[in-house]
Amino acid sequence: MRETVPFVKFNTRVRDEAVGGDNPFRWQEMNTNDYFANRKVLLFSLPGAFTPTCSTMQLPTFEKLYDAFVDKGFDAVYCMSVNDSYVMNAWSKDQNLKNVKVIPDGNGEFTRQMGMLVEKRPECFGMRSWRYAVVVDNLKITQWFVEPGYQDNCLSDPYSVTNPESILDNLFD
Fold first, then answer.
1. pLDDT attached to residue 105
2. pTM for the structure as a whole
């Protein structure tokens, strides 16, 4: 497993009222350093926005327990998925997120370099992220949480190691 996060560029869409119109968003390139340098963050990655486990349990519970992560010394909690910025922004709005920030890994490059890219052909998802979470302290990965059964085309969707309660209970001091 990697000991540092890979350097990747992310194409994001950010709200900018100067753009005007019905869709006041512009492209903004972000990179690994923008998200992870000089801070302690929890990154959790999941198979897809708007999917059942991700939308009804994982993301909403991270949002609900955000303050517990801040109390443990985290500066941010990020949710990543192999989805484009349009989808991730729509999902963030749909989930009414105030604290957890989303990162679009549209091409799956970050996920691939983390060793967590899997094929999800049974769901017709193509290549997606295996469910995992990492503690990142100034670009260094200090702790991994990975669901069991990592494989392409897994017929189940394990969710026991990467739920926020389990992560909080198993953080190193």
1. 98
2. 0.96
